[in-house]
User: What shape does this take?
Amino acid sequence: MKRRKINLAVCLCLMLLPAQAQEAYKNPDLSPDERARDLLNRMTLEEKTGQLMNQSKGVSRLGIRPYDWWNEALHGVARAGQATVFPQAIGLAATFDPQAVYETFDRISDEARAKYHHFQEQEMYGGYQGLTFWTPNINLFRDPRWGRGMETYGEDPYLTSRMGVAAVKGLQGDGARKYDKTHACAKHFAVHSGPEWNRHRFDAAAVSKRDLYETYLPAFKALVTEGKVREVMCAYNRFEGEPCCSNKELLRHILRDEWGFDDVIVSDCGAITDFYEKDRHETHANAVEAAADAVLSGTDLECGNVYQSLYEAVGQGFISEEKIDESVFRLLRARFQLGMFDTDSLVPWASIPYSVVECEKHRAKALEMARKSMVLLSNKNNILPLGKHLGKVAVVGPNANDSVMLWGNYNGVPAKTITLLEGIQSKLPAGHVIYERGCDYVDKPGNQAIDHRATVEKVKEADVIIFAGGLSPQLEGEEMRVDLPGFKNGDRTHIDLPQVQKALLKALKETGKPLVFVLCSGSALALPSEYETTDAMLAAWYAGQAGGQAVADVLFGDYNPAGRLPVTFYASSDDLPDFEDYQMDKGRTYRYFSGKPLFPFGHGLSYTGFAYSKAKLSKTAIAPSESTALNLTLENTGKRDGEEVVQVYICNLQDPAGPLKSLRGFERVFVKAGEKAQVKIPLPPACFEFFDPETASMQVLPGKYEVLYGGTSDEAKLKSINLTIK
Assistant: This one.
């Protein structure tokens, strides 16, 4: 009887408590874990399975709003109307400036928050309106034929790691606040970089353990363990026979167990459908089995609708409700981490005004990043920078007046874009610029050979000719319907400049006038004849809304270029292994390529010169757990202020099967003309991690190492110093 009285008293007290006090998930003072667990326990199985697709369903009785998890912010908030458009990711990589990339994504996440709260006020919960961004793409750009390589940070694992971590921290915030600013996503996990045409059935089965751990996984590990990225997206392809979105080795053993990732794993869009559809992977019998296996393997959220079969899968015994709960918990917790269940007055990020979208501060950053991304490839007889006293300048080529090209892909839409033509016109008096498009990007099948005499006749009186050519996001990109000479489904079949542009360049050269080639592309091209034909070459990528101004600033000397190549520019398509061969030791990237590239990884010229002192290591013999640092003096020997990108490569001398050298440190350094700067680049133990065949893992092993340093990966231009790990 006494126990009954106590229980009655407790019940009476609970009845007198406010409803909010009884519902822990509504209490903002509790942790996201506590709130998510409480909310999960109040949901039916049907309500739970409704949360597991990107278009997650609302549950009005519990105050759960519908939410679409799909949003993009590759180089600016994308597909959601007006936004600041920064340079494409490959251009951001060319800056070799992680701090500037962090600042860029901090501005992007400002715009993201402003847009999200604007959409919420209007009760808009659709795609591209949320706070979960499927950015960045940190796949390795192992082959220049891959059309999506423009979305990456290049061919090097370390550079990709540094840029990727910077992007994640800029998007998510510093992690010290109660609410995350947005959520980022490391994609596509793993061993994924083309071809586009067979990605739904391709099996990366021949990848060695060395390549997996030394090339394809380091950036993902960095974003998970250092960047604390909140989402990881699994890839379309198979890895060793099993689709990546149900791959036990990748998702369970490596991502969950080895790296301790306990946040959201999301599928690429339609990737679960590939499990059972004919002429795709065909590894599963039907949607029910595919959905169950994907969740059991660790994929919490599907971009698609196969997971609507999960309710049936539980009934048929393919998966338990408890396993469903694990994924739903992660998804609910993510929304609590973002403040989606709390009033705007409690979430500081909600106070960011909508006026921040493409504000002056952000436009200035877009220009800064475009300038920093410019890579001066060649400059014969110092023809650049151009003088502003020129009588006439001819601007020719398919990229000269194309604003949409500058936006790249996965982009927003700026209020104003400055084309290359407009940027050049702004530097000279009215009437001093002659413009002729001259040709299209590529010949269409069946077209007769184009006669360029009319174009040559119109520009022959110019003092200098600027040819703006290269590629376009309309030709290279994700699984595109493009079938033109040199292009296939978004990829390229060879890396030469399209023939129609080659012919026009040759005709322009015959005028005898100085010829400058501004190359816009998302990838490397083989340009040996163009190098011979032209007097200067500038890689401008897809430079964003301020790209035209940035190009003009470099051409006319208002900005001293210091970008560096994040990819190797090979001299010929013949230098490339088979596109579908993922083995790195077949000569892929600067780390394994033993031939002579046209322009090496890390290459980039300046309008000034730099001299390196003989560097010293703070310690030349260290234990595996110790750090050292490279110290040197950098002198600007020219007459212009400028920046140099000091690069540090490590060679493991006792590992002949390993990379020729690997980037493990860099710093972009500004030095005034005639002055010197002291440069110190830390080399923590991770810089000396290489694959150990005996343990099939990354280790810091005793032995001799060579530390190479300079302004390029070209070994002939690098200095070296030896180090021993005891």
